[in-house]
Amino acid sequence: MSKIKKCLFPAAGYGTRFLPATKAIPKEMLPVLTKPLLQYGVEEAIEAGLETMAIVTGRGKRSIEDHFDVSYELEHQIKGTAKENYLKEIRSVISSCTFSYTRQVEMKGLGHAILTGETLIGKEPFGVVLADDLCDSENDGVLKQMTKLYEKYKCCVVAVEEIPAEDSNKYGVIAGDVINDAQYDTEALVRVNDMVEKPEPEDAPSNLAIIGRYILTPDIFDVLRKTKPGKGGEIQITDALLEMAKIGKVIAYKFNGTRFDCGSVDGFVEATNYFYEKSTK
Fold it and tell me: Which of 7, 148, 208, 221 counts the highest number of beta carbons within 10 A?
């Protein structure tokens, strides 16, 4: 399989937990300090060596396209002033990669959103970043860590972290057999053999939950086409990955770094405080 060059960003959701702010502003554009969540994700993908950002949007999301484009009027107004420096980071992002977009007409779950992105991805492996899972790492970003794993194992990779048992019904939860790899800490890698979407604590197969980082192989699209609606009546990526796990094609990785659930108000505030403190050091 070819080297990973594309990253898919499902960005069509309504962000109802942040209403009324998200009534007119996409949740992916909510800022942590001065940068929208989606830009953090794009920068993580660029750092991992990905060159094409494929974004699945929906109604009311035009500001995403505008953000990753040149604003000639704004640039003209601040040219030659101290404020011009504020656009340095986003200019670098725009010049470092290309963007493509498609719309998810109906909200039918993350699996459906990823399938909608097939037209932008084609028949090659790709990364997936959920922007409301904001990650920070001291060295390599989470997606870069995962692309290195893909290059070695040539299969799907999901990022996981340990969660309290009572939170299992918020996540896809995995179980499997530890892979002994001298390059990684003991129990950092798991060959997945079971995955359950949002199980109750008594039904969870482990305390390892999938977060919003994936490396997927293109055969996931064929599996998704056959995947029936599951939890909540939606097409779940967890259900599709379970089919691939049954034939040994999914690895779970306990990543190095810190993850913030910016889909919740508490996580968003925690991330804002964390990045503010980091910026002042």
Answer: 7
CA distance 235 to 221: 12
Whether 236 has a pLDDT exceeding 60, the answer reads yes
Cβ atoms within 10 A of the Cβ of 25, count?
17
Neighbours of 207 (CB within 10 A): 17
Instruction: Report yes or no: 151 and 49 within 8 Å, Cβ to Cβ.
Output: no
Residues 6+ apart with CB under 8 A from 163: 171, 207, 208, 209
* 68 vs 43: CA distance, rounded Å: 12
* Sequence-distant (≥ 6) Cβ neighbours of residue 196 within 8 angstroms: 172, 173, 203, 204, 205, 238
**Residue 106: HSE in the Cβ half-sphere, 13 Å Cα cutoff:** 5
- CA geometry: angle at 117 spanning 116 and 118, to 5°? 95
How much is the average pLDDT of 159-169? Answer: 93
75 membership: H or E segment, kind and range = helix 72-78
Tokens of 235: 């097409």
User: What's the whole-model pTM score?
Assistant: 0.94
For 29-84, the pLDDT digits (tens) are 999 999 999 999 999 999 999 999 999 998 889 999 999 998 888 888 888 888 88
Prior bond of 20 cis (ω within 30°): yes
Q: How many CA atoms lie within 13 A of 88 on its CB side?
A: 6
Please count the CA atoms within 13 angstroms of the CA of 27 that sit on its side-chain side: 24
Helix, strand or coil, per DSSP, at residue 253: strand
Yes or no: is domain 6-279 CATH 3.90.550.10?
Answer: yes
